[in-house]
Amino acid sequence: MSTAEKVKVIFQPSGRRGEVERGINIIEASRQIGVDIEALCGEKKVCGKCKVRIEQGSFEKFGIISSPDNLSPWQKEEAKFITDAEREQGYRLGCMAKLDGDALVFVPEESRAGKQVVSKAARDIPIKWDPTVRLYTVSLTKPTFEDPLGDFERLCAALEEKHGLKDLDVDIFTLRELPGALRQGEWTATAAVWNEKEIIKFWPGEVTDYYGLGIDMGTTTVAAYFCNMRTMEVIDTVSMMNPQCKYGEDVMARITYHMQNPGGLERMSGDMIEGLNTLVQKACEATWPPKKKKRDENGKSMRDDDGVIILEEAPEKDKRYLQLNPSDVMDIAIGGNTAMHHILLQLDPQYVGLAPFPPVIHRSLDIKARDLGIKINRGSYIYVLPNEAGFVGADNVCVLIAEEPYKSDDLQLIIDIGTNGELVLGNKDKLISSSCATGPALEGAQLSYGMRAAPGAIERIKIDPDTHEVDYKVIGRDAWRSFSKPEEMQTKGICGSGILDVLAELYTAGVIVKSGRFAKEQKSDRYRVNPDTKQKEFVIAWAKETSIGKDVVISLKDIRQIQLGKGALYTGCKLMMRRMGMEKVDRIKIAGAFGTHVDRTKALIMGLFPDCDLEKVSSVGNAAGDGARAALLDKQKRKDANWVARNVEYIELTVEEDFEKQFMQSMQIPHMVDEFPHLEGVVPEEVLRQK
Amino acid sequence: MSTAEKVKVIFQPSGRRGEVERGINIIEASRQIGVDIEALCGEKKVCGKCKVRIEQGSFEKFGIISSPDNLSPWQKEEAKFITDAEREQGYRLGCMAKLDGDALVFVPEESRAGKQVVSKAARDIPIKWDPTVRLYTVSLTKPTFEDPLGDFERLCAALEEKHGLKDLDVDIFTLRELPGALRQGEWTATAAVWNEKEIIKFWPGEVTDYYGLGIDMGTTTVAAYFCNMRTMEVIDTVSMMNPQCKYGEDVMARITYHMQNPGGLERMSGDMIEGLNTLVQKACEATWPPKKKKRDENGKSMRDDDGVIILEEAPEKDKRYLQLNPSDVMDIAIGGNTAMHHILLQLDPQYVGLAPFPPVIHRSLDIKARDLGIKINRGSYIYVLPNEAGFVGADNVCVLIAEEPYKSDDLQLIIDIGTNGELVLGNKDKLISSSCATGPALEGAQLSYGMRAAPGAIERIKIDPDTHEVDYKVIGRDAWRSFSKPEEMQTKGICGSGILDVLAELYTAGVIVKSGRFAKEQKSDRYRVNPDTKQKEFVIAWAKETSIGKDVVISLKDIRQIQLGKGALYTGCKLMMRRMGMEKVDRIKIAGAFGTHVDRTKALIMGLFPDCDLEKVSSVGNAAGDGARAALLDKQKRKDANWVARNVEYIELTVEEDFEKQFMQSMQIPHMVDEFPHLEGVVPEEVLRQK
């Protein structure tokens, strides 16, 4: 098999096609051609999400003959996810089937990596105005024979005299703008100064407003706060899926992708940079005035020679329409977990994934935007927040500088639940942090019908204790199931925030018992043993209510996954409290999208985190994003970040002596009345005292 | 005339050809095709050096029909340089004739921009070893669960403990090398640290030797000293023509090129960067081991499948053969005059050419090599020396930090003669500097037969006072004219160092008088009135001795040009001495190639600079290059450079009250016995007392 040989491949229903190297697998082909197929496990062959169908036949329109025989032989691992009937139809796993000839590949809806509904709004946290980048306007005298001082020294003298700025450096690209700016502004100019140290931009005349972004770079979602750096106003919040999702859902999958693919790190980094550039562009374009159709004197819309309607700027140029461009962005502060941090910066992330998990660097970095390929003002820096440890990254530092537990008397427990759970415990006297492998289950991934928070995802559920009948609600539809026709639901799966609801309801309705097993007594035909998988399962939505033509179920295996996740989190909290020698915490803060959506009562019922006055359990929203925004606007926060990254003590929990025992106990649904006195009066007595 | 239309053009004798846009002139076409035509005046249409001949006829081989009619119409300014007979033959000026159709262009030898013989060897000046970039080797302990500190912080802790380095930054590209280097070197690594501030390179294990270049970027020649930065040894001296020469010979011509051509600045800068990259590559390749033919057991040289002889490395790998690559270069210090400085950095140079001549910046700059496109170690900086003023640039600063007049008790006059003369006068108490428009004449340019110091250029001359017969010597031939057959001389013109000889000899032999006019009594037929130009002239070399088929003469106009140059220099010296209130100087130092070649006695006879004990007049060679090398190896020199750039007082001489009067007087050949008592006993009595 020559590696130089090419085969043709077409993806349906998108219709995208191209030529790829013979011998690559379908996932890789989809990446090259630009089709998104779910690859939750990062091609570790364990999630089965990348199921696709190879069509049989001659497709003259595309000049190919497609056949399942054009692929590498069937692997027995594929049988775990593909039934014999499906195999007959041509189903394969995209990560296993390699192209040995032309193929038309149909990507079923559940295998498509959909566009997630992202809601990460900026919270109103108090931020002091003391940005790293500031503007200064000065007026100069013109050079003469008596005073032929050079432009830069002339400007610096004025900046020192008027603003006390000394020994300023200047970026070479910025310096090129100086002679023109001075003369165009008739010897009045504005300089953007970074860190009281380096001039990164010149404008002719006086300029007052300038712009920046605080960016929270999550494993799944990237959210940016676009700010006016003078007024601190959040002009817009923009977000996108992390474009690296196609290389694997979690950080370990991406680290694995890097280790197994030469150039993989550069590719993932490049995708992120490209994404960030698009994000900045999008933020700027939102400030542009709306266009309207250009009309002739008769009011008819005008067309150009090609028949295209001509648009022109709307007349009212109100304050909202700033017409900003990426080159108007003077500063960016960005934080992400250690793996995202390393991948962005092309720092080898493999050791972050290997015990004892040392990161390449902890401290914050100031990197010229152009060195990363980020297209903002050419002289500007990107401020990259510092990492605490291999598994507690800059995203957690962002949460800390937003929430400032290091200034608090109260003992706070801050939980940031993503694919990895990050925990911080303490107050102004001491802070410890840890991470726990909650796994993707709490976010809905790696479950039979888990999915991201996208339209069609079940997010709320109620189960009747008497009949075990189910009512639920999906994202993108206000009406619950009981108020809809089945076919209106278009259900697709269960999202992260729905998962806890499901489990808590299954338990309080008596479908499952404390150990997580299904109860002996079942009240509906929703409970069954799946004839194909032989697994016990409970039907949440019948096939007729879904857009995927299949029952959406939760299986015993799914329940175990969730228990593993919640057990890991609870063990983490407990062990950290033991380390700090404390019985209870004063306050629990839950960061991230999970926190925004989670039902506190149900979380306590499931024993996700330790008992606490429900009033003192709060969601702090996208605290990571808030922290990045704070670092953009207040340089003290940058100092705090470096301090906190080095002064929060990281605890590796898995090496604690009785970790295994604690973990086994934590997987159980807890005995509420003993462990969660705060639930008294909140949940029904019989649930509270259930054995 | 559509601008998109193309015409074919072929240059002879080089045979280079290509398609260019219809309507551009021949000089521009030659640039695009890569043929060097002399354009001394930068297309200001005043030098006449770019004379070319358009051939008439059908050139089937090239598929073109060439004709002088294919060019834009004859301009009357061309008649200044092209005789009617030459016009008949198809001669045109390359800067005026535009291509309106295909053309075969013959470039006569005297119009070709030849390769100059450059000799800028490194002098032995005392330099202290204290480079800005230093290497440090440390051994670390491996990370463990108890000590999971990140790679960078682990390294920094060791660098602080062992070498006292604190708060180090790191270049992002360098940081990417860290995890690999640490593990490859089994936790021993070497870091290159810039300015005790930033790590710019990592190597696994221990590394001791590292490399750098000190570069003197002249208007005409660029010379680089390639140094081992540990031992301070100059491994090699490499040089090249300034690739910007094709845009004009002097700085004003290049500034004009920038102002008249959009993108011209970027083009000139790009050419310099490309040249510097080639220079670095050349320096490195000189360290590679020689290749030898690979031989089989029978001693026969071996060939590959294509029949090409296979080369292999010579066996003796002695210390000389380092096999360095540009990425081994850790530092570069570069200096040039203010215009060269600005063009290199793409800083608008137009104000440097306009009164009161303010530069864009004085102070030194540390610029990431990659930001300039200079291909050395990716994390390294280029140190760009500071400018004193618009007409006294970093090249002069280099001379000063090499010669250190600011540490001297003696009153020194330092003269750096190029196209622009740069003067520094003073001692440790006070230093003043100035520049004077010596013009290109002292270097041999803009004279009828002036040329660069290239083979065929007259460099020494003697004129017999009794017969006015001439003997001379050319570069590239040891034998003088009187010892050669005429056709062996292959004379082409007169170079800079020859010019002063010519004038001094013309004067002492009585061919010209003090005012510069030809003497009434002439003794040979070498003196004549040119029938074409009607100019008085004196033949230095007859046509039969030349390779250009024409008499090489010096005309009255040429003599005037030289007088203007030497007058400007002498006026500068005198006015500066007056400013400092001094009658005489203790020491005169002449920097640059001019200084190396000039005959001190003849310079005094001509009155180039003030009287001084001949023993105290010395050439300091390429002091600018030595200064750049000093700045590479001793960071104190960089501090000195910034200090001296701001503390040498720049005097604009042309605004002195009696400048004109002084200048008129200085143009005369001086009255030696009065003004130059030190010439007594050195020149014949009758010359010394000549009126």
Spans where pLDDT lies below 50 across 5 or more residues of chain A? 114-121
State the oligomer. Answer: homodimer
Give me the Rg of chain A, rounded.
28 Å
Assign the structural class of chain A, choosing from mainly alpha, mainly beta, alpha/beta, alpha+beta, or little secondary structure.
alpha/beta
Whole-number count of domains of chain A = 5
Mean pLDDT of chain A, nearest integer?
A: 87
Number of helices in the DSSP assignment of chain A: 20
C-alpha geometry of chain A: globular
Strand order of the largest sheet of chain A: 14-13-12-17-19-18
Spatial separation of the terminal alpha carbons of chain A: 63 Å
Strand content of chain A: 15-25%
Share of helix among residues of chain A?
25-40%
- Report on the biggest sheet of chain A: 6 strands, mixed
Which pair of chains forms the biggest interface, and how many residues does each contribute?
Answer: A-B, 46 and 46 residues
SS elements, strand count of chain A: 31
